[in-house]
Amino acid sequence: MKKVTAQDTLQMSVEERIQLVSDIWETVGAAPEAVDLTAEERAFIDERLEECRLKPEALSPWPEVYQRLLASRKR
Fold it and tell me: 8, exposed or middle or buried, with CB in 10 Å at 0-12, 13-18, 19+?
């Protein structure tokens, strides 16, 4: 497999680079156990998950969050 450098990606269009980053991110998400977390990071995630379990009404679906982000940029 050819090693791709950051310099190599400059030959790609922005759209191709975004797709590459997305593809790479998906491979990371496919193996979450391979990501080493510190005890502090794991505790933070566990606390957030517990908050979600205790207060599901406080959660927002992604489309709603996305619309709020778009609206905040227009201000």
Answer: exposed
d(CA 65, CA 58): 12
67, part of any domain:
yes
Q: CA distances (Å), 59 to each of 55, 62, 65, 70, in order?
A: 8, 9, 10, 18
Range of the domain at 54: 6-73
Q: Please, where are the H alpha helices in 1-75?
A: 6-9, 14-29, 39-54, 62-73
Residue 1 domain-assigned (yes or no) = no
- Answer whether 20's CB lies under 8 Å from 12's CB: yes
Lookup: tokens for 30: 């496919």
Overall number of domains in the chain:
1
pLDDT in tens, 13-44: 999 999 999 999 999 888 888 889 999 999 99
